[in-house]
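forwarding from the other thread:

> can someone predict this with iron/sulfur cluster?

sure thing
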Amino acid sequence: MSEVLIHPPLDDETVKRLHAGDTVSISGVIYTGRDAAHKRLVELIRKGEELPVDLKGQIIYYVGPTPARPGCVPGAAGPTTSTRMDAYTPALLERGLKAMIGKGQRSPQVVETMKKHTAVYLAAVGGAAALIAKKIKKVEVVAYEDLGPEAIYRFHVEGFPAIVVIDCYGNNLYETEPQKYARN
Amino acid sequence: MREIAVDQITEAVKRLCLLANYRLGEDVIQKLESAEREEKSPLGKKVLQQIIENDEIAARDEVPICQDTGMAVIFVELGQDVHVVGGDFTRAIDEGVRRAYVEGYLRKSVVSDPLFNRKNTGDNTPSIIHTSIVPGDRLKISVLPKGFGSENMSALKMLKPSDGVDGLKDFVLETIVKAGPNPCPPVIVGVGVGGTMEKAAELAKRATCRRLGEPNPDPRYARLESELLEAINRTGIGPAGLGGTVTALAVHVEYYPTHIAGLPVAVNVLCHAARHAELVI
Ligand code: SF4
């Protein structure tokens, strides 16, 4: 287990150095998006229109934060269940998205597309929302403000903690690790 | 007849929603700490340390423990000698929820129509209210803000009486294994057995808010709880589903008489952000 410091945007070389089981600490800019925003992005791609964010090399964090108390940025901001984004993810990976942060399994199709386009899936600890919020230094709305907590935000983060769960080689911690501790 | 004004109810519900979302009970914190000591996986230990640190930050800074501040599930025990005055009882409860979620910077996660127009109601109402009438002149309110990462992993099955204890165990285990990392393990598993379909579901939900570590008073059910806990922790799912020896902090089983032809079993999964607050007026 080693800790890797990463600074988006990410290139293929950086992604290839990340292995399932590594813990990473992210500093720089990441984007947020949940189902509703994903749906809109994929609709734009289908229509051949331009996206509100250039996804090349970027990280999307699946999160719908709580509203910020005055003087706090943001409220609590832990990961949401990633499966709900599975249907939309391949289209974004094809657009150059390099990493996703969420919690829970991904579909086989997402994993295959990740391998093909050299991308990585990271998990943040579900329910560690107050701790994660401390690592978010600045929040800006990028698009779809009407969606409230589901809008696309730009987070400026410092030392955001995550774990590489599925690497670009298809190794999947959710499959390998529980087996090691299973006692029948 | 003792009179209780609806304003008091609104105020109590508001306080409980805020308290539950910012601060975990001592029982949950203690279980998380002992889980951290016992966990064999280094990564699992690290996850538990993050969770404990998170809960400390949330309580200290009055930030929600989790960004999914849930749908508010409210259990009310209304003494039959209480007269609620000054307004509508249900509305008073929802008003408390509304104030907590709007004024307390909690996330509004309720949509008005489940199927056709999933429009956010903007104030996290309505809540889910379970009321029982009991002897006495007191009013007890319990609030459980329930996140849907774990709620979505819950399940109900109408078993056959012949399926028995083994059938129940298989179903509980199957539900937890299928849930894997999604409900944010380590989880608390509430099992409701017996009654009718909706009774089993309600029992399962009630089971999740029993004080952690307190076994069912019936020794047969207490033994079932510890056997289920052991079996779940042998799955290896571990903290955050990343492998380990602690998958559940507790299993609570509640039961009720049922029909000669049935064995309903409901499993309600609650995440480590096991938020729950109650008070008596
Ligand atoms: S399952 Fe619980 S801890 Fe996990 S994100 Fe949902 S509410 Fe938070």
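Chain B has a mean pLDDT of 96. thats all i got for now
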